[in-house]
Design brief:
Layout (H helix, E strand, L loop, with lengths): L3 E5 L3 H12 L3 E5 L3 H8 L10 H10 L3 E4 L10 E4 L14 H13 L5 E4 L7 H9 L5 E4 L9 H6 L4 E4 L6 H9 L7 E4 L1 H32 L3 H9 L20 H14 L5 H26 L10 E5 L14 H11 L3 E5 L13 E2 L12 E4 L11 H7 L4 E4 L6 H6 L3 E4 L12
Helix pairs in contact: 1-3, 8-10, 8-11, 11-12
The structure holds uridine-5'-diphosphate-glucuronic acid.
The site of uridine-5'-diphosphate-glucuronic acid (UGA) has 21 residues, from helix 8 and helix 10.
């Protein structure tokens, strides 16, 4: 048995870290203030949809390596404590550290001598350097150990990380080595850094992904004008190992609980430091434009004009989550676009394999049968790239619509197959009817 690890917070990051560290052979106690969540987790009822997570939680509970409690005094037994706490944006877009500032002083009173406190969820640069003051203890060590998990792939990303970043001041201290050893079984490359670099590396990675996506989304727009195909352009770019093939798929804009929050936070921090991060500001601006662009495409598909009125038009939406593989609606471009269509007077019926009727969806009619979205629809709109949408019976969908047109904001579907089914397919980043020759 390795270290006894305490995890504070049982959200995506905390729960995945707790279950995976137990799986890697450590003893883990996961603490959360939400007693009903703790009770459910203690019965192996996992509140989030992450492939492999329920199995790992059940395994840890069964062999006694994983425990959940609402009693934080249990952390007094732990040699390492990982902070997996929320830092939601405040009204200016800056991360709100209120929860962390409440929890850390309490840890200072609870923890055993020599314990290591590591920040795991994303925190602003400079947070680790502030922790010793908040802890009010000189015998505790502080580490920045940011996570890079993708929703829907959390377990896999945790057990097979591309890199593990361990920040201490100075880098490579004994506390850093204790955190590193937790990950030994993963054999991941380790970056030993100072805490500010480790913290910034997390923001820098998410912001870079956002810039890459906004870049390709603008390229898609350009392809439509030039009569080029963004799929071929992106494939060519992706085969250059300096660019890489991932995050080059155009879409209705990037969203979720991380990229929007982290880009805004980094922009804010850069501004406060007197650095103009114009390229990132543009990426955020382009992203807001993507949603409006998708709405115009739908208006054009339905009325013949990007400015046409949608009142009374029936529109069928496929996908509401911010990406496939999750039911997460936080900052979802798909939900924002569907809601905007409804606000403009359309009657929107939507289906997402992972989303049922619920809060925030009042403007839409959410159905669990994908074929219902097509009924009398003037257009279908694909907003989330669920692979199962490809396997729908598109001839059946076409027969149910009033006009068989599909706006495919993810380039998910095959134009040939759609044409056979009787659909007009409107993908993004391919020849636009008004395409002008280059120059
Ligand atoms: C993101 C990062 O990818 C993780 O590395 C990071 O740990 C995580 O944020 C976090 O900070 O916790 P996630 O929010 O799960 O992960 O979502 P991504 O898979 O990165 O997707 C972000 C957005 O980009 C989605 O809206 C997705 O649809 C969009 N996207 C992604 C595209 O439009 N095209 C692509 O080719 C890829």
């Amino acid at each position: 048995m390795g270290e006894h690890v305490g995890v504070v917070g049982a959200g995506y990051v905390g729960l995945t870290s707790a279950a995976c560290f137990a799986h890697l052979g450590h003893r883990v106690t996961c603490v959360d203030i939400d007693e009903s969540k703790v009770d459910n987790l203690a019965r192996a009822e996992v509140p989030i949809s992450e492939p492999g997570l329920p199995e790992l939680v059940a395994e840890g509970l069964a062999d006694g390596t994983l425990a959940f409690t609402a009693d934080d005094t249990a952390l007094a037994e732990c040699g390492i404590v990982l902070l997996c706490l929320p830092t939601p944006p405040d009204h200016e877009g800056k991360p709100d550290l209120g929860v962390l500032e409440d929890v850390v002083p309490r840890l200072g009173r609870l923890l055993a001598p020599g314990a290591v406190v590591a920040t795991k969820s994303t925190v602003p640069v400079g947070t680790a350097a502030r922790l010793p003051d908040l802890l009010r203890r000189t015998d505790l060590s502080v580490v920045s150990n940011p996570e890079f998990l993708r929703e829907g792939h959390c377990v896999d990303d945790f057990l097979r990380p591309g890199r593990v970043v361990v920040g201490t001041d100075p880098p490579g201290s004994e506390a850093a080595r204790r955190i590193e050893r937790l990950y030994d079984p993963t054999r991941a490359p380790v970056v030993r850094a100072d805490t500010a670099s480790a913290e910034l590396a997390k923001y820098a990675s998410n912001a870079f992904l956002a810039v890459k996506l906004s870049y390709v989304n603008v390229l898609a727009e350009l392809c439509e004008r030039f009569g080029a195909d963004v799929g071929e352009v992106a494939r060519t770019m992706g085969l250059d190992s300096r660019i890489g093939p991932e995050f080059l798929a155009p879409g209705p804009g990037w969203g979720g609980s991380c990229l929007p929050k982290d880009t805004t936070a980094l922009l804010h921090a850069a501004g406060s430091a007197g650095v103009d991060f114009g390229i990132l500001r543009d990426a955020v601006r382009v992203n807001a434009r993507q949603r409006a662009r998708a709405v115009r495409t739908v208006r054009e598909a339905v009325t013949g004009s990007p400015w046409g009125a949608l009142s009374g038009a029936r529109i069928g939406v496929l996908g509401l989550a911010f990406k496939a593989g999750t039911g997460d609606l936080r900052d979802s471009p798909a939900l924002a676009i569907a809601t905007e269509l409804a606000r403009r007077g359309a009657e929107v019926t939507a289906h997402d394999p992972a989303v049922g009727p619920g809060p925030g969806l009042d403007a839409l009619q959410v159905v669990d049968d994908p074929y219902l979205v097509a009924k009398d629809a003037a257009a279908l709109v694909v907003l989330t790239e669920w692979p199962e949408f490809r396997d729908l019976d598109w001839a059946r969908l076409a027969a149910a619509t009033a006009r068989p047109v599909v706006v495919d904001t993810r380039n998910l579907l095959d134009s040939g197959q759609l044409a056979e089914a009787g659909f007009t397919h409107l993908p993004v980043g391919r020849r636009h009817p008004d395409a002008a020759p280059f120059g």
